[in-house]
Design brief:
The protein has six helices and twelve strands. It is of the alpha+beta class. The chain has three domains: about 50 residues, Structural Genomics Hypothetical 15.5 Kd Protein In mrcA-pckA Intergenic Region, Chain A (Roll), CATH 3.10.290.10; about 60 residues, Alpha-Beta Plaits, CATH 3.30.70; about 80 residues, Alpha-L RNA-binding motif (Alpha-Beta Plaits, 2-Layer Sandwich). Helix 1 crosses helix 2. Bound molecules: uracil (URA).
């Protein structure tokens, strides 16, 4: 791939802007020698203003999404891309969230530019577990564990019942819920179906990948072992 296109695809600017960066001598090799747009170099050997390039595709990230930020790129308010370097928004292929968390939900959010991986993670067939902690407005009534595990709970406007889900009671109004699918506002609607209301919701893990010590608003690039961890806990039952 030509260098202008390679660098523009990483979001550093339009092809015209990147061509200008070449003319300004801002793009060099690792030894500091100025590169020209028609030079041939590998990704690892290119520097912009002395800095190595962002990772090429495929790029996968994990973000600790804070409350108050939306996953949609069209929202007028704060969006998850605002928490990442601005040029990530201009990457081609685009960096998309793997499913969504509501504006009022915090926790582990994955982003990737690999469409096939994204679909593999969100597909109910992969049976990747997602673990949520919920604080509720009302005391648990006692039958939630059984109802959620039944595989028969039908949410309003849905055509198929929910897959069995595991609820651990952590307190009178505090529970941990493990799901193997991701329907719209699923956790909130599950508790609403039993007459309760979720006051706060946090996603702690996706498959075997947990947030760890990532603080709210922080992100990091996923490594191969993180991707393995995501799929490690998917069972085929
Ligand atoms: N379920 C919800 O209700 N909201 C989320 O953000 C995720 C799961």
């Amino acid at each position: 791939m030509r260098l202008v296109r390679l660098i523009a695809n990483l979001g550093y600017g339009s092809r015209k802007e990147v061509a200008m960066m070449f003319r300004e001598g801002r793009i060099t090799d690792a030894a500091g020698d100025v590169l020209y747009a028609d030079d041939k170099r590998g990704h690892a050997d290119i520097r912009i203003d002395g800095e190595p390039l962002d990772a090429p595709a495929s790029l996968h990230l994990m973000l600790h999404k804070p409350v108050g930020v939306t996953c949609s790129t069209k929202d007028a308010g704060r969006i998850v891309h605002d928490l990442l370097p601005a040029r990530f928004r201009l990457r081609n292929p685009a960096l998309s969230t793997v499913g969504r968390l509501d504006r009022d939900t915090s926790g582990l959010l994955l982003l990737t530019d690999d469409g096939a991986l994204l679909h593999r993670i969100i597909s109910p067939k992969s049976r990747i577990s997602k673990v949520y902690e919920a604080v509720l407005a009302e005391d648990l009534r006692g039958d939630e564990v059984t109802v959620f595990a039944s595989g028969e709970l039908m949410l309003e406007a849905e055509k198929t019942p929910l897959l069995p889900a595991t609820l651990e009671v952590l307190g009178a109004r505090h529970a941990r819920l493990t799901l193997h699918e991701g329907r719209y506002h699923q956790v909130r609607r599950m508790f609403a179906a039993l007459g309760n209301h979720v006051v706060s919701l946090h996603r702690a893990s996706v498959g075997g990948l947990a947030l760890g010590d990532l603080a709210a608003g922080e992100w990091r690039v996923l490594e191969a072992r993180d991707l393995e961890a995501i799929f490690a806990s998917g069972d085929s039952a």
